[in-house]
Every structure is written in C-alpha cells, then in structure tokens.
Specification:
It is built from nine helices and no strands. By secondary structure, the chain is mainly alpha-helical.
C-alpha cells in the first residue's frame, strides 16, 4: 500500500521525459508563421492529394530527408526540387518545405562555409584565406570555392542526411513505445489503487 505513491512519482518523472520526446513529433507536424503561409500557397498551387499530408512516421521522416537534401544543395528554387520528388515518393510535403526553409539567406553563409570546409577535407584542398560569412564574399569567390562547396554539399545532403534519417526514425519509434509503456504502467497503477480498499478510521486509531 505504501509503494503506490512512490510508483506514482516514478510515473510522473516518466511523463516528464515523455513530454520531451512528444515535443519532437508535435514540432515536426505543425509548421507555423510565414513558412506555413508559403507552404499553403504552394500546396494550393500544385493541388496535391491528401497522401502528401500524412503525419505517420514514414511520411514525416521521408519529408525531413527530402527537405534536408534539397536544402543542403546551393541552388535556386529549392522548393521546386521538393515538388519534383513527389512523383517518386509519398512524403509529407509541408514538412519537407519547412525543412528546406531552414536554409535561407540568413543561414546560407554558415551552411555554405561548413559544406566548403567538408569539401576541402574530402578533396584534400587548402582553404583560401580571408573567408567572410557573407553572401557577397561567396559570390565574389565562387570560381575558387564551387568544387569544394558542391562536394561538401552532396556529402551533407546524402551521408549526413542518412544518419539524421536513421536517428529520427529511432527516436520516433522509441517515443511511441515509451508512450505505450507509460500508459500501460499508469493503467496498472490505477487498477491497483482501485483494488486497494480504503483504510477505516477505527483501524488507524
């Protein structure tokens, strides 16, 4: 009888852990703000069927992977790349476009510089001096950095993307299983409480 409150405390701590994992899935399912309005306009333009709005694990993780791929490639019209992939795979298009928008004029310099450094490592090239994290600098030195930049970009778009894809799949599966175990443990605890008869005042005195 005295163990029940302690089990409830344990379940409460488990519930707090679950909230963190649940937030991952909830955040992935609901793009907001300007990104959401751009997504809505694009989806209305292309008249996509409901199969491209699925929020199950496969649809969401594929959407993240496809969005990551096109978002990692230095190119204009990255969202068009996402739409070009729709005939070949079913995935959550809104989440893919939201991931693409993680690469934007604010994040381009840091993203491109990281990909440029990775490309240099893979190709064994020396980095040029005086790198500046501005779009103007990258444009001015495009001829010197393009090869390393695209090699690094395709590495990030494929190898790093594959690692993130596997990681998100595992986190999603663990989160679902953890929620299921939590609900079962909570149900057992409640049944145990209901089965325990209340102590009478006479016995306590």
């Amino acid at each position: 009888m005295q163990k029940l409150p302690q089990s409830l405390k344990s379940l409460h701590s488990v519930h707090q852990m679950l909230n963190g994992k649940r937030m991952i899935r909830k955040a992935l399912k609901s793009p907001k703000g300007k990104t959401a309005s751009k997504i809505d306009a694009l989806l209305e333009k292309y008249h996509l069927p409901t199969g491209y709005f699925g929020t199950n694990r496969r649809s969401m993780t594929r959407g993240i992977a496809i969005g990551w791929f096109w978002g990692s490639i230095p190119m204009p019209m990255q969202m068009a790349g996402v739409m070009a992939a729709t005939p070949f795979a079913k995935f959550n298009v809104p989440i893919a476009i939201a991931v693409v928008w993680l690469s934007n004029p604010i994040t381009y310099p840091a993203l491109f510089y990281g990909e440029y450094l990775i490309g240099n490592v893979l190709l064994g090239h020396e980095s040029i001096d005086g790198v500046q994290l501005t779009l103007h600098w990258f444009h001015a030195h495009w001829g010197q950095i393009a090869t390393s930049l695209y090699v690094g970009a395709f590495f990030v778009a494929t190898v790093v993307n594959a690692a993130v894809y596997v990681l998100i799949n595992r986190l999603w599966i663990r989160s679902v299983r953890f929620e299921k175990h939590h609900r079962e443990a909570l149900r057992r605890t409640r049944k145990a409480q209901e089965a325990t008869p209340p102590s009478s005042p006479d016995k306590e005195s």
